[in-house]
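Q: What residues go here?
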């Protein structure tokens, strides 16, 4: 049996152009002069925002650098992977902290990756993470050995891979709750 394409299988016909709307205008999330949504950090893409909004209490998000094996870790753990190639890891952390509460029911809600061979060293991205956490009123991040960090990242709900090219630009966050009740 052969299939003959009559053109009817391509879905509904395109809608006629609405009056006073230029045909070349495509939908966008920002305009030249102002964002369409208020108080949303502009480096967070629609995919990143949707993934963050889909997270529940206790879910982890890994903000990782360009060198991190994010595709493999996300595949192995079944996590969502969102690429933010134009963003640095500390800037991404700052943007995420504007929207995502950290878990305050656990002793640690943030973890960085320890430098190989010198667990006490504080690389520049890690120092910037500490500053961003402090500015957001959060506890300092704990640190994990490299492979322990990979293991924990495999359990993350979301990996945000940035364009950060400095080593150790990786941090994990555990989402808390947004509550409407006073306690």
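A:
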């Amino acid at each position: 049996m052969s299939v003959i394409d009559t053109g009817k299988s391509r879905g509904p016909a395109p809608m006629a152009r609405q009056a006073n709307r230029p045909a070349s205008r495509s939908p966008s999330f920002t305009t030249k002069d102002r964002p369409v949504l208020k108080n949303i950090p502009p480096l967070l893409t629609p995919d990143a925002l949707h993934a963050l909004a889909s997270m529940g209490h206790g879910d982890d998000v890994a903000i990782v650098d360009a060198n991190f094996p994010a595709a493999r870790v996300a595949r192995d753990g079944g996590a969502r992977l969102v690429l933010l190639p134009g963003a640095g890891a500390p800037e991404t952390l700052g943007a995420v902290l504007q929207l995502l509460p950290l878990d305050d029911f656990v002793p640690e809600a943030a973890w960085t990756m320890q430098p190989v061979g010198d667990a006490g060293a504080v690389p520049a991205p890690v120092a910037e993470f500490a500053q961003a956490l402090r500015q957001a009123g959060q506890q300092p991040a704990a640190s994990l050995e490299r492979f322990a960090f990979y293991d924990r990242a495999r359990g993350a709900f979301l990996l945000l891979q940035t364009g950060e090219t400095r080593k150790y630009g990786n941090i994990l966050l555990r989402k808390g709750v947004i509550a409407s009740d006073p306690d």
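A: Context that may help when evaluating the design: Residues 1 and 9 are 17 Å apart (CA to CA). The radius of gyration is 21 Å.
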